[in-house]
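Tokenised fold entry reproduced for everyone:
>
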Amino acid sequence: MSDTSGEKAASEQTSASEETKRKFREALERKKQNARNRPGQLDGESAIHGTHGAAGNKREFRRKSG
């Protein structure tokens, strides 16, 4: 009787593991499908502008007096 209960437990764990894997695969497929349907940055322009360049005025550095 211990052999059959051990086999059942092992098959239940395997089936639960397979079920989890199947759910993750389905979720990954949905994610990939959504990514294909969305237009990315088609114009090739970034949403961030003016990050580099000269500052508005020249910095002034002063020595500490004490």
Q: What stands out?
A: The radius of gyration is 30 Å. The chain has a mean pLDDT of 77. The helical segments are 2-37. Residues 25 and 31 are 10 Å apart (CA to CA).
